[in-house]
Amino acid sequence: MVLTKLSDKTPGAPLAVTLLVGSAILWSTGGVLVKWVDWHPLAIASVRSAIASVVLLVFIGKPKFTWSFAQLGGAISYSVTMILFVSAIKFTTAANAVLLSYTAPIFAALFSGLYLKEMTSRYDWLTTAIVVGGIVLFFLDRLEVKGLWGNIMAISSGFTWAWLALFLRKQKSGSPFESILLGHWLTFIIGIPFMFRGGPSLHGWYGLVLLGVFQQGISQFLYAFAMKKVRALDSILILAFESVLNPLLVYLIIGEMPGKMALMGGSLVLGAVTTYSIFRTKRER
After folding, report:
1. b/e for 155-175, b at 16 or more Cβ within 10 A?
2. CA distances to 52, 62, 179 from 5, in Å
3. What is the pLDDT of residues 99-143, one digit of tens each?
């Protein structure tokens, strides 16, 4: 409840960048935790969303549903993004799933001018090109036919994630939190039939609680609040920091080792995102 009471006069970029970095760190645990839970991907997404929605309600209190196009569009985009991403991690490497989802800046750059009237500068396009270039290196390094469907799902999640950012940004003068909450409820409902296909171990339930509380609940509150302060494209480019942390955690904990080209790609992404974040913060100040 503290963040929602912050004044609109609070400097946008410095606070938003901090919140987005915090969100990226929490998101980066997703690859490890989803791999940790031995269950159907839609069941994982469903239970994770149920837990996360409770966490969000604690933060935002009484939700304000307007049922506007932006609010419903954000909810659907978020639900589809979560389902596609969790499924992608199960069908391909966590590294591929994360990095291919970061095709999102391309879609955000393409549609933000049309939908939000937020023009994309040459520097935005340059940063997007570097981030995507890093992603391509990582993808080429780990390209496997058996993970083809997982790679397609990951790219698709990039498209839907871009629209999530656009819909949340559209609600910058209102409350974007309800879109996230509705998205979690929708995901929970969709995944219910898949819960009856076996079940996770006690070890897996620990992973689900961590996914719901930290990786989705708290992180999404920070993300939605930051979207009131920064452009849609900015948010995705700054969050690309996660694309380095996620595979790193997977390697350290699970042992899923990225190759040399992947490491080069990760370095490009990290360097571009760091530079971009500093630039945006200084320009705001």
Report:
1. bbbbbbbbbbbbbbbbbbeeb
2. 21, 14, 19
3. 778 778 778 888 888 888 877 778 788 888 887 787 777 666 655
Q: Which amino acid does the sequence have at 217?
A: G
Q: Does residue 142 contact residue 258 with C-beta atoms inside 8 Å? A: yes
Report which of 77, 63, 83 is spatially closest to residue 187, judged by C-alpha positions: 83
The span from the CA of 163 to the CA of 172, in Å, is 14
pLDDT at residue 2, rounded to an integer: 40
What Rg do the C-alpha atoms of the chain give, in angstroms? 18
What is the pLDDT confidence band of residue 95, given thresholds at 50, 70 and 90? low
Q: Output the pLDDT for position 49.
A: 96
Backbone angles phi and psi of 47, in degrees to 5 = -65, -40
> By three-state DSSP, how is residue 169 classified?
helix
Looking at residue 3, the DSSP 8-state letter turns out to be G
Query: Which amino acid belongs to residue 136?
Result: V
Domain ranges of the chain: 37-284
Per-residue confidence (pLDDT) for residue 1, from 0 to 100: 45
- Of 108, 130, 99, 103, give the one whose Cα is nearest residue 30: 99
* Contacts of 7 by beta carbon, 8 Å cutoff, 6+ apart: none
Hunting for tokens 């969050």 — which residue is that? Answer: 239
Which among 92, 100, 89, 91 has a CA at the least distance from the CA of 33?
89
Alpha carbons within 13 A on the beta-carbon side of 268:
20
